[in-house]
Amino acid sequence: MTTSPVIPVVEAHALTRDFAFGGATVQALRGVHLAVAPGEMVAVAGRSGSGKTTLLNLLGGIDRPTSGRVVFLGDREVSSMTEEDLVDLRRHHVAYIFQTFGLLPYLSAAENVEIPLRLRREEPRERDRRVLELLDLVGLADRAHHRPMEMSGGEQQRVAIARALAGDPKLLLADEPTGQLDSETALRIVLLLREVMRWRDLTVVVATHDRQLLDVADRVLELHDGQLAGEG
């Protein structure tokens, strides 16, 4: 009896990205190969400037490679998509969590979580149900009407996680998600991410320096001067 091969959620093939800077060309990524399996958490480590954020931006279609390919679910080539297709990808399949939380300060927690659902044109009743469900998932149902300035850093990051999950993404990209948190709060966010992965059948690629995140990842890849230097 044969089993079907596992189709990676996202793949990078010979990925490069160059930037013009001060009359010179800076190579942020140099021939990166990567395949992330369904339900896997891959942590990308490396010092500042090693290319971690650039890699995440290319995997999610925020940026385009200078050369090479990004492939989603085996047959969707992200690197050659139209802008319309990229918007659809980010709206329905890929979500982001940022180091700086990225919440709109004049909106409540519930309204921030609701944004992706509005973009998807969900019915109001379904939006309300989903928002409450997601805030409850991250333990913030009682903070639904608070604005970011009324919340701690850990609470804001939990709102950001709830917002990222609103569209039921297949791939979650997290860029230093614990970078602005103290160690105790960071640990709670790390454990929440792992729980959310199990509950939501998520695949996660996270760029991080945080040892706690590196310790819970299924794989750790080291980026050095734009190249993957191996696994840890």
Structure write-up:
- There is one protein chain.
- By secondary structure, the chain is of the alpha/beta class.
- It has one domain (39-62, 82-231): 3-Layer(aba) Sandwich (Rossmann fold), CATH 3.40.50.300.
- It has 7 helices and 10 strands.
- It has helices at residues 52-59, 83-92, 109-119, 124-137, 153-165, 183-200, 211-216; strands at residues 10-21, 24-36, 41-45, 67-72, 76-77, 94-98, 171-175, 203-207, 219-224, 227-231.
Keywords:
6-stranded mixed β-sheet; Rossmann fold; alpha/beta; single chain; 34% helix; 232 residues
Task: Give a brief outline of the structure.
This protein has 232 residues and is an alpha/beta fold. It has one domain: P-loop containing nucleotide triphosphate hydrolases (Rossmann fold, 3-Layer(aba) Sandwich).
* CATH classification, class level: Alpha Beta
- Secondary-structure element sequence? EEEHEEHEHHHEHEHEE
Lateral arrangement of strands in the main beta sheet: 6-7-8-3-9-10
CATH topology value:
Rossmann fold
Distance between the termini: 33 Å
Q: Please work out how many helical segments DSSP would assign.
A: 7
CATH architecture: 3-Layer(aba) Sandwich
The pLDDT mean sits at 89
Principal-axes geometry comes out as: globular
* SSE class: alpha/beta
Helix content: 25-40%
Number of strands: 10
User: How much strand content do the residues show?
Assistant: 25-35%
CATH superfamily: P-loop containing nucleotide triphosphate hydrolases
